[in-house]
Amino acid sequence: MSIDAATVRKVARLARLAEPEERLEPLAKEVSAILTWIEQLNEVDTDGVEPMTSAVKVALPMREDVVTDGGDPKRVLSNAPKVVGNFYVVPKVVE
Amino acid sequence: MSDLTSLTLKAALDGLASKSFSSAELTKAHVEAVAAARALNAYVAETPEKALEMACASDERRAHGEAGPLDGAPLGIKDLFCTEGVASTAASKILGGFKPTYESTVTANLWRDGAVMLGKLNMDEFAMGSSNETSAYGPVVNPWRKEGSNADLTPGGSSGGSAAAVAAQLCLGATATDTGGSIRQPAAFTGTVGIKPTYGRCSRWGVVAFASSLDQAGPMARTVEDTAILLKSMAGHDPKDSTSLPVEVPDFPSFVGKSVKGLRIGVPKEYRVEGMPAEIEALWQTGVEWLREAGCEIVEVSLPHTKYALPAYYIIAPAEASSNLARYDGMRYGLRVNGSNLTDTYEQTRAEGFGAEVKRRILIGTYVLSAGYYDAYYLKALKVRRRIAEDFDQAFEKVDALLTPTAPSAAFALGDKSDDPVAMYLNDIFTVTTNLAGLPGMSLPAGLDASGLPLGLQLIGRPLDEGTLFSLGGAIEKAADFRGRPQKWW
Question: Which of B9, B14, B399 is nearest to B224 (CA)?
Fold first, then answer.
């Protein structure tokens, strides 16, 4: 399967990656080469095969629904690019 | 005291126990070796003060008779593990300067048992790569060189810093992680031992996520016994990782040296690939003979879906990565590049913060999960993944473990494969199957090729049967008597 520059532009937008126009064509070529190689999977008969969603055959455990951590805004915010008081500062979302 | 860096972890622990030297002396020797080896680019952050502080605390504990199983042993930590107060960046610009306020469970277990941290080790960005060339800090250089050559070789990846540091005696052992071969391929390229345990053996809590259904932490060291000692400390159930298995941790070191007589060893015929050097094929045969002489029964087995493992992996891993890496949005931690509005800020931050290979995988992952392609790619890959796991289930009805080569080549030159993603991906052709099936796999050095570079063999075991791998690894190690060490040029 080969994909074109317009598809790369769309996928890059979905992934929130700014890609300059001149990169779209080369990226389309690179990604197409990988997707073409991946397509050999179509040779495998997977009719009636259950998708494997976990590497080990165990059911996920349940835990008590209780607070185990928290109440420490200084630690939570210590790596933030911009902070005022106990708040993250982010670009304006609503005009 | 420079010879203290040439000790195995076991010998160092014995020396500490018999008071032949202190942890402060042992640690100082390693700190000096690390500082003298910057040409290898193995460490991205050195923490000499913290190391000496931890070493002195260890000596205190030992003086009071309170030494733990790893007390006083200096180790290197892959930069993928979050370490409290010490920059942890996954070798990515997007996490530049990130200082966790918490400790990963695996490293916390090591410190609980008394280990000393020398610093953080270089790696491929977000563990995506097989040559260490995707690191934002530049590639690690393999301490090994071809005979009569000065060309820089890759140490493999993604745990290239861990592998190079262990091989060059810049630590007694290191933590590493393996999503498609990132412990075992670098181990093979550097003449070191590495084991990826069963999925769920080690907690993933505090380990920067790449592909959560495949990621697993494990140790690298210079002997099979040393990796067994390290894994015993690293492993264990952790309520903070719901996929960590609630099972007892066996006494792994006790398996090393056990007889392997009567064990049935499978040799999968599909692991002979076109273009593989004859030396690797020959070494594999030698390995088979070693195990036969040790009393194992050799059985040819078939894993018919082997060739589909890599293409399935390159759907599943990027899909999970695109989801995991969505968190890097420049709002709460890491890099922020201000754009004209919120979306532009996200897009500029991620474009600037991620390297080319990481972006490529995010694009592929986003594409295969997008509307209209999910069934054709992602769901198909999950079904093929089950076929691959079933191949192993059937093989393990007949055999106790499998023996294969670790990688289809010896270490290659930096720059050799960086223009061809698929050629680079093929490095993991023998290792990626165990990640998909969740099985334990070990690589250990078995010989040198004609140009003097190390080659590795891989052992694959049943789920939670690392013990058998340590016994078999011990038997191969004894037969191979591999004593190769890189000639110091750095």
Answer: B9
Q: How many CB pairs under 8 A join A and B?
A: 158
Cβ atoms of residues B182 and B158 within 8 Å: yes
pLDDT in tens, B71-127: 999 999 999 999 999 999 999 999 998 999 999 999 999 999 999 999 999 999 999
Report the alpha-carbon distance of residue B477 to residue B458 in Å, rounded: 12
Which tens digit of pLDDT belongs to each residue from B352-362?
A: 999 999 999 99
B158 cis-preceded (ω within 30 degrees of 0): yes
* Spatial separation of the C-alpha atoms in residues B241 and B367, rounded to whole Å: 28
Cα atoms in the 13 Å half-sphere on the side-chain side of B25:
12
pTM: 0.97
Is B158 a known active-site residue?
yes
Query: Residue B307 has what DSSP assignment?
Result: G
Segments of chain B scoring below 70 in pLDDT:
1-2
Rounded to a whole number of angstroms, the distance from the CA of B409 to the nearest CA of chain A is 21
The answer to whether B50 is a known catalytic residue is no
Helix, strand, coil fractions of chain A, as percent rounded to 5:
40, 5, 55
Q: Provide the domain limits for residue A21.
A: 5-43
Report how far residue B271's alpha carbon sits from residue B377's, in angstroms, rounded to the nearest whole number.
25
Q: Is residue A88 part of a domain?
A: no
The complex scores an ipTM of 0.96
Residue in the block written with tokens 């309170």: B66
Q: How many domains, chain A?
A: 1
User: Burial letters for B148-176: b for 16+ Cβ neighbours within 10 Å, e otherwise?
Assistant: eeeebbbbbbbbbbbbbbbbbbbbbbbbb
Residue A75 has pLDDT above 50, yes or no: yes
Instruction: Give the distance from residue A52's alpha carbon to the nearest chain B alpha carbon, in angstroms.
Output: 5
Measured CA angle at B225 (ends B220, B227), to 5 deg:
20
Q: Return d(Cα B251, Cα B183) in angstroms, integer.
A: 22
